[in-house]
Amino acid sequence: MSKDSSIEWTESTWNPVTGCSKISDGCKNCYAERMAKRLSAMGHPNYINGFKVSCHEHVLELPLSWRKPKMVFANSMSDLFHKKVPFIFIEKVFHTMRKARWHCFQVLTKRSDRMAKISARLNWTSNIWMGVTVENSDYKNRILDLQETPAAVKFLSLEPLLGPMPDIPLKGIDWVIVGGESGPGAREMKKEWAAEIRDQCISANVPFFFKQWGGVNKKKAGRLLDNCLWDEMPIIDFELAEQPL
Fold it and tell me: Which residues contact 157 (CB under 8 A, 6 or more apart)?
């Protein structure tokens, strides 16, 4: 399954893996789980197993058919480094990302321990961005794992931001995204938490992207932080070209 995305920091999603399981505080109100249940009820073939981890061979080469260069969020409905995703399938996903060199792929994980363990066995190219989700200071170790990978662009998704994040280790980090939780049961993100992270990014010269305040009505809450829209992103340092005919 893939589609144009409403996620503010990407353009499309691509899901050769679907399904996941909860491992930390940020997973409590998982949007992907809610969506997977709806898609399963609608009879979507990729969600016949609901939110159980499933690999979809038939989706692997889909980005090769997209001629226009895109920012692609890989596995928005799963975690590529989940223990139930075989290493050989992760290799296949990386093979497609390398082959589709005209796209930029954004990979995001909470399972930084497995990512760090196998990253040296993967073939990284400059169009593969690697990020970790860190919802509060209890999970800063994920950042340290990310810093050890050979990814050309390393980014942090501090969403849903559930607590203050002082003294973020930003060495080697190329981008920081901050956002509040949205949807049913959304937990509050305090302004001072977001502002402190923004100020750390400014001091470290790291691009800062403020995604949303969140809440039950995220559109009404908006995206302004101190009356400014923060849409900074890393400079893409590889040549995006049309797919060869």
Answer: 108, 131, 132, 133, 134, 177, 179
- Shared domain for 17 and 110, answered yes or no, is yes
Residue with tokens 């009356």: 227
Q: Is 121 exposed, middle or buried (0-12, 13-18, 19+ CB in 10 A)?
A: exposed
User: Could you tell me which residues come within 8 angstroms of residue 203 by beta carbon, excluding any fewer than 6 positions away?
Assistant: none
Residue 5 lies in domain:
1-22+30-146
- pTM for this one? 0.94
Sheet containing 153-158: give its strands across: 2-4, 12-14, 71-74, 104-109, 128-133, 153-158, 175-179, 208-212
Residues 18 and 102 in one domain: yes
How many other CB atoms sit within 10 Å of the CB of residue 137? Answer: 13
Per-residue pLDDT of the chain (245 residues; tens, 9 = 90+): 446 888 999 999 999 999 999 999 999 999 999 999 999 999 999 999 999 999 999 999 999 999 999 999 999 999 999 999 999 999 999 999 999 999 999 999 999 999 999 999 999 999 999 999 999 999 999 999 999 999 999 999 999 999 999 999 999 999 999 999 999 999 999 999 999 999 999 999 999 999 999 988 888 899 999 999 999 999 875 555 445 44
- Do 177 and 113 share a structural domain? no
My answer on whether 134 and 218 are in the same domain is no
Same domain as 8, residue 94: yes
